[in-house]
Amino acid sequence: MSDTETKTVKATVKRDFTDAGSEKRFTAGTTIEVTAGELENYSAAGLVEAVADDTGEPAKTGRTRS
Description:
globular
């Protein structure tokens, strides 16, 4: 990935809405790709929810088993 590419993340739309700045329309129940900044804004407004990583691996906690 080059430095000029913007990384996107998947999110599920919780309700229909139109982004006021870009005028993009989103439909509830769909999965979209957004930038990290868009995800933060939409999540704060309660409009989307991040999709869990689909690798099937458990999240790393930083703890080791003894």
